[in-house]
Design brief:
- The longest helix is centred in the middle third of the chain and has 45 residues, at 119-163.
- The protein has a domain at 189-370: Alpha/beta knot, CATH 3.40.1280.
- The protein has helices spanning 2-22, 26-48, 56-76, 79-96, 107-114, 119-163, 170-187, 203-221, 239-248, 264-267, 307-314, 324-327, 339-352, 355-358, 379-393, 398-408, and strands at residues 190-194, 228-232, 258-259, 273-276, 292-296, 318-320, 328-330, 367-370.
- Helix content is 58%, strand content 7%.
- The relative contact order is 0.05.
- Strands 3-2-1-5-4-6 form a six-stranded parallel beta sheet. Strands 7-8 form a two-stranded antiparallel sheet.
- By secondary structure, it is of the alpha/beta class.
- Residues 177-369 form the SAM-dependent MTase TRM10-type domain.
- Its EC number is 2.1.1.218, 2.1.1.221.
- It is found in: Mitochondrion.
- Keywords: Coiled coil, Methyltransferase, Mitochondrion, S-adenosyl-L-methionine, Transferase, Transit peptide, tRNA processing.
C-alpha cells in the first residue's frame, strides 16, 4: 500500500502539476493533489487503526496555508507595475481637474512621487515639476525669439549691404568724427558750457542736464564743422563728474573736449564772450563767428527766472536771447529749450546763417508755424487771431471766446 501511494505522488508531481502550471491550473489542482494524497493516507490509517478519529481542523489549516502561498506567489509579481499605472491615472485625473501637474513625467519622477510621505508633499513635488517644465518651455521660447531676431537682423544687414554702394563700418566713422573733433580743438570756434549751477538743481535735474550735454557732444562731433567745447567751472568728484562717468564710462578720459575748473572769464577776453539766456533783453540777430557763446548747463523747469542773467551781469558780460518771437508763432508751452536743441540751432546757424532752418529744431508742439509778414497786417494781429483759433480748438464756451475777442479787439467788437 505504501508503494502505491508513493507511485501516485510521483505521477502527479511529474505529469499533472507541470501541465497545470503551464496552463494556469496549478491553483485548482494543488488542493486536489493534496486531497488525493491525504485520502490515501487516511485509507491506510483506517485499515491499520480503525478506532482513530480524523482531525478536520488540522486538515483545513493545511489546505488554507497552501492556497494562500500559491495566491501570494501569483499576485505579488505584478504589484509594482500596477501601482505605477494607478499613480499615472491619478495624475491624469488631477490634471483634468485643473491642478498643477506636469504634462510629461518620467518613471523615476513617478516613483519619487509615490515615495512621498503625505498628500501635501506629493502636491508640492508635482508643483515643482510643473514650474520646472514651464521654465524650460519659456527658455526654449526665448531662444527661438533670439534666433528669429538674429535672422531678421542678418537679413536687414544683407539688404543694406546690397543697396548701399559704399559700406563704412562704425569704427571708421568714429575715426573720422574724432579727427574732426581733434581739428576743432586747434582751429574750431570755442563754445562754453557753464558748469556752476550744480547747487541750484536737484540730483535728478543734474542727471537730466548731463544727458542733454552728452547728446550735445555727440551732435557736435558728427557735424561738418564742430565747436571746440569747453566745460568751465567743472570740479572733480562733483555730481556733474559722477554723472558723466556713468554716461561715458571708459570713454570719459578719451573725449576731445577741454575740461577745466577755471572760469571762462579767466580763459577768454570778456569783450568776446556772449552769454545766451532766455531772460536777456537783447535779441540775437546774426551769428558771429568771432564771438564765444556761453550756455548755462542747467534745467530751466525748477530754476527761478533770471539766474543766468544775474550771473552774466555780475561778471559784466554781454547777453543775448534767441529771436524766437520774431520767427515763430508760439501757441502752447514754455520758450525754454534743451541743451541739445541749442546745440543743433547753433551748429545750423554756424553752417548756414539761416534762422528758419536753425529754428526747425524747436519742438513743433510749442509753435504754430513760422511768421510770414503780410502786407497790410501786422504780426500782433496775426498772433491774436491764432489765439482765438486755439481757444476754439480747446472747445471753450462761447462767452469766454467773446470775452477774449473783445479783449484782443476792443475797438472793433463790443460786448452787449
Amino acid at each position: 500500500m505504501q508503494s502505491a501511494n508513493m507511485l501516485l505522488r510521483k505521477i502527479v508531481r511529474s505529469s499533472v502539476l507541470p501541465f497545470a502550471a503551464q496552463h494556469g491550473m496549478k491553483k485548482d489542482l494543488f488542493p486536489l493533489s493534496r486531497t488525493l494524497s491525504l485520502s490515501l493516507c487516511l485509507k491506510q490509517d483506517k485499515s491499520c487503526e480503525p478506532s482513530e478519529k480524523l482531525d478536520l481542523d488540522a486538515w483545513k489549516k493545511v489546505m488554507k496555508s497552501g492556497f494562500q502561498e500559491e495566491v501570494s506567489e501569483t499576485v505579488s509579481e505584478p504589484k509594482e507595475p500596477s501601482s505605477l499605472a494607478a499613480a499615472s491615472e491619478m495624475l491624469e485625473m488631477w490634471r483634468l481637474s485643473g491642478r498643477l501637474v506636469p504634462e510629461n513625467i518620467t518613471e523615476e519622477q513617478l516613483k519619487t512621487f509615490m515615495e512621498c510621505p503625505s498628500k501635501s508633499a506629493k502636491k508640492k513635488y508635482l508643483k515643482f515639476l510643473h514650474l520646472k517644465e514651464l521654465y524650460k518651455k519659456r527658455k526654449m521660447d526665448k531662444k527661438m525669439e533670439r534666433r528669429l531676431e538674429a535672422q531678421d537682423q542678418d537679413s536687414k544687414t544683407d539688404e543694406t549691404k546690397r543697396n548701399s554702394i559704399i559700406y563704412l563700418q562704425t569704427s571708421t566713422m568714429d575715426k573720422a568724427y574724432n579727427w574732426r573733433a581733434a581739428q576743432s580743438m586747434i582751429f574750431g570756434q570755442p563754445l562754453v558750457f557753464d558748469m556752476s549751477y550744480e547747487k541750484e538743481m536737484s540730483d535728478r535735474e543734474v542727471a537730466n542736464t548731463v544727458r542733454q550735454i552728452v547728446l550735445s557732444e555727440s551732435c557736435n562731433r558728427r557735424s561738418a564743422d564742430p565747436f571746440h567745447i569747453h566745460f568751465c567751472n567743472f570740479k572733480d568728484d562733483s555730481l556733474y563728474h559722477r554723472e558723466f562717468i556713468k554716461q561715458y564710462r571708459e570713454g570719459w578720459g578719451k573725449l576731445l573736449i577741454t575740461v577745466t575748473d577755471q572760469c571762462y572769464t579767466e580763459i577768454f577776453p570778456k569783450d568776446k564772450l556772449i552769454y545766451l539766456t532766455a531772460d536777456s533783453p537783447k535779441v540775437m540777430k546774426t551769428f558771429d563767428h568771432n564771438k564765444i557763446y556761453i550756455v548755462g548747463s542747467m534745467v530751466d523747469k525748477s530754476i527761478k527766472t533770471g539766474v543766468s542773467l544775474a550771473r552774466a551781469k555780475r561778471l559784466q558780460l554781454e547777453t543775448a536771447a534767441l529771436p524766437l518771437d520774431k520767427y515763430l508763432l508760439w501757441s502752447t508751452g514754455a520758450k525754454n529749450l534743451t541743451l541739445d536743441q541749442m546745440m543743433h540751432i547753433l551748429l545750423t546757424l554756424k553752417d548756414t546763417a539761416d534762422w528758419n532752418k536753425a529754428l526747425e529744431f524747436v519742438p513743433k508742439r510749442k509753435y504754430s508755424g513760422f511768421v510770414n509778414k503780410p502786407v497790410n497786417k501786422p504780426v500782433k494781429e496775426l498772433k491774436k487771431t491764432l489765439d482765438l483759433i486755439n481757444a476754439l480748438k480747446l472747445r471753450k464756451r462761447p462767452e469766454e471766446v467773446q470775452k477774449q475777442f473783445a479783449k484782443n479787439y476792443p475797438k472793433k467788437y463790443k460786448l452787449k
